[in-house]
Amino acid sequence: MEVFYYLVFGFLAAVVAGLELSKNNKDRINTSQPFNSFKNSYLLVYSLMMAGDWLQGPYVYFLYSQYGFSKGEIGQLFIAGFGSSMLFGTIVGSLADKQGRRRACVTYCITYILSCITKHSPQYKVLMLGRVLGGIATSLLFSAFESWLVAEHFKRGFDQQWLSLTFSKAIFLGNGLVAIVAGLFGNFLVDSMNLGPVAPFDAAACFLAIGMAVILSSWTENYGDPSENKDLLTQFKGAAVAIASDEKIALLGAIQSLFEGSMYTFVFLWTPALSPNEEEIPHGFIFATFMLASMLGSSIASRLMAHSSPKVESYMQIVFVVSAASLLLPIVTTFLVPAANVKGGSISFSGCIQLLGFCTFEACVGIFWPSIMKMRSQYIPEEARSTIMNFFRIPLNIFVCIVLYNVNAFPITVMFGMCSIFLFVASILQRRLLVIADKPKSEDWNAMKERDAEAEPLNVA
């Protein structure tokens, strides 16, 4: 492995360690012992859930290829996963508001464990069922846990600012440290232990089962708006009206879809971008480097959110502009750096420049997650939090399905250019959100609820 990879990894590790060790009282949020116990309990569960997710990621494509499926068939399986998340996942995720967030978190564990079990079968239909179950689980992972946390946080009377501490720590651990350890552990199971590509899925099921046991034994149930006897269609209608009537919620949804859509597209593009001539690159080590960059971003976010200034809505404008610029590097290097015509070999000079840009983008991802979580906790009404959050994922999943279907139809520079444009648009929308951020939240939602209540006929026994 080239020295360049070690230098990048070592530099990021040193910066992350320096940031964490140099925190002083001004960079920390003073909290209470009950909150720390609550936070640590949630972080334990969230880390186990993310371990179950990260263990699977690097080996899904490899497992399908080992079963003898073609690139087109594998693409169909991936599309099925995102399509399931858009259709079935939205419905199941929205039920969390009515049936309970704790129950939805348990459903995530069960659904994902079943998805892992299907990986033992080489049958296409069984694997397709696993992708459908995985899509449902993904929607629950990115809505039910956050909804439970926010509701439980306020139910216990904790300060709103303390939420940012939990969010930043969750991303630092779950999307950073746990991802790195999971990648190394999966590599140990497959390569060192020679257990085969299905072993990480079995390990993931074990972590999910442990997390489910912790949830069942220590979490209490909370709901969105159980007092209103609404069916699912009415819930969807109410959430849609809330998004349409509150510009802040609509902007937040658009920003999230634009950024996450670009992020998931990047996941498919970074490998061909760094090895256009089949250069030999250490995929696992580069993945670990990206996760370390994400840890750096979450560490920066924790410092930013510990202070009242700058506001999240303000600094996120800069984050989106920086992320847009970082994904322009593949286009810039195409025109400015001479292309190598030799097949194979080590990473090119152009690839080195792009890798630094991609690490910058991953740092922006690390800032994005806790920051968007904090904004969602401020602007999305508690009554339909899970439902609205799953609404946000509908355009995201449509976009990713389109990208997957046409991934070979456009040059890679066009795809990166499209992502960069999306991120720049997100910065513009973020600017608009900053302008209207001080408007009272949820006033339109509450007014809508009152109108609905007045319109419902009285039930006289």
UniProtKB/TrEMBL annotation:
One of its GO terms (molecular function) is molybdate ion transmembrane transporter activity. The lineage of its organism: Eukaryota, Viridiplantae, Streptophyta, Embryophyta, Tracheophyta. The keyword Membrane applies. It comes from Rhododendron griersonianum. One of its GO terms (cellular component) is membrane. Pfam families: MFS_5. The chain crosses the membrane at residues 6-22, 43-62, 74-96, 128-150, 170-189, 201-219, 285-306, 318-340, 346-369, 390-406, 412-429. It comes from the Eukaryota. The keyword Secreted does not apply. Keywords: Membrane, Transmembrane, Transmembrane helix. This is Molybdate-anion transporter. Belongs to the major facilitator superfamily. Phosphate:H(+) symporter (TC 2.A.1.9) family. Gene3D superfamilies: MFS general substrate transporter like domains (1.20.1250.20).
